[in-house]
Hints:
Order of helices and strands of chain A: HHHHHHHEHEEHHHHHHH
Oligomer: heterodimer
Structural class of chain A: mainly alpha
Low-confidence stretches of chain B: none
Distance between the termini of chain A: 69 Å
Helix content of chain B: 40-55%
CATH superfamily of chain A: Ammonium transporter AmtB like domains
Strand content of chain B: under 5%
Structural class of chain B: mainly alpha
Shape of chain A: globular
Mean pLDDT of chain A: 94
Strand order of the largest sheet of chain A: 1-2-3
CATH architecture of chain A: Orthogonal Bundle
Number of helices of chain A: 15
Low-confidence stretches of chain A: none
Largest sheet of chain A: 3 strands, antiparallel
Mean pLDDT of chain B: 86
Number of helices of chain B: 2
Number of domains of chain A: 1
Order of helices and strands of chain B: HH
Largest sheet of chain B: none
Number of strands of chain B: 0
Number of strands of chain A: 3
Distance between the termini of chain B: 53 Å
Amino acid sequence: MTDQLGALTTIFTEFYYWVTVVLMFLIHVGFCMYEVGASRYKHHQHTLMKNTMLIPLVTVTWFFFGWWIYWAFPTGPGIAPSIMNESTALITDESTFSAKWYLANSEFMAINLGDHISGVFWAAFLLFSWTAASIVSGAIIERITTFAFGILAIAIGSCFWVIDAAWGWHFDGWMLKILGYHDAYASGVIHAIAGGFALGVLMVLGPRIGKFSSSGEPRNIGPRNPWLVTVGLFLIYTGFWGFYAACNIPIFDLGPEYGMEGVTYWTATNIYVTPTTLSGITFNFLMSLSGGLLAGYVIAKGDPFWTYSSGLAGVICASAGNDLYHPIQAMIIGMIGVVIAYKLHYWVERKFKIDDAVGAVAVHGYAGFVGLVICGFVLNGYPSSGYSVGAMWDGSTYATINPLGQFLGAIIMFVVLGLIPGYIIAKVLNGMGKLRIPREVEIAGLDYEMMEEAKKDERAVSSATR
Amino acid sequence: MATVTNWIDHLSADEVVGAVYPGAGSTETLLVILGIVIWIGWHVITNKSESEELSRLSRKRHGANDHKSNITDW
């Protein structure tokens, strides 16, 4: 960095992403509190440790191969050529945005005086990965082994979600080009896929003992600590601010980027490098949160657990198009998503005996899916990319946003990259006898031994001080 | 092992080398292999200990009301 303006832009961008990472850490703190609050006393400590250990597992695998996948896979491979090298192969050449620079042994995957962005951008995406894995974690509490969850967390956090991000959350992704896919703040690429993955695992894992009566009627196993759940969800809301900011590029000159001769246009952009403003998405974040809360309060008849979750579902549903929606559109879309997610949750629970302990499949999966479909109608005709005009390998343009493309995109996220891999991996783990804890342990509590040891210790201390 | 021994010389070179960590340019692949061994090893060790713990607990013949006393005294 030798000129002051260039240095200022670079250091600002570096610091911007760093702040978003710190803010997004609160999402994970929130998920941990939420899960512990929702679990029963006898499982508390194992529930907490399960969600905590996904942090190192997803982080190291994200370093080893997850980040590389994002940059290598936008073409499919074999589906649509890259606009950078016109090849359908994995992008591992010498081009600027090649995955080659993000191999774990690359000099850019470390402190490098010539690169101020890779580490913070890597970390921002990593925090999205934690979120994807943590969404799955909540649904399956109290009966999965830590080993199985670790494998599933790596699969969703460092593999499947990042394939969908390369396909549909990348300026060069084939889903933008062919389907006109648009998902600015990840209704699908994080939430729908994680919800679908969780559903696939739940289909194999089965319900908690006692969740359903012998006649098949579901019993309510409500949160054991509603205050921890409340604070947890508020923290997730807070972290979500950071997430929205992290999905943007904070400062970018679109003139030369779009090949507009003599035009300079500095702006924030979304992940597709199309213009938006941090100010505008702040309107929409709050209005969709409010829409979700309003609808959730009514439909759940004031139940705090669902009302708080509905705020989150409202944001998730509107997120696909929150870079362009009017705030009142965002609010209404949030409300629609909540009603559908809530109704679907109970219908699926009764019909298929699926025990989603925290409503994660509904809040993230169904709301995300619905949000993608609605986005296809409301933003029908908008360009899916700023590189539209003549940018394709054959001189044509990227597809525009459209209802069919968004619906197919939702299927790819929820079913193809979410539900099916989750189901298959859970089946394999189950076949190995590694998926579910023994019945006796589930009844006595995962923390049984820990608690008995603690009681012994305390008795020893008490008798020594008499 | 030190990649930089004099910052003034390093930063005033015609082309500043960005990678400044110890062993830059020669140890990265080895470090990645080491990291992967640690990662896989962690799974192996924790899987073994978790399996042992679960099978020990499941042999204890818990009563239906065991969980009620499964709360510490303080």
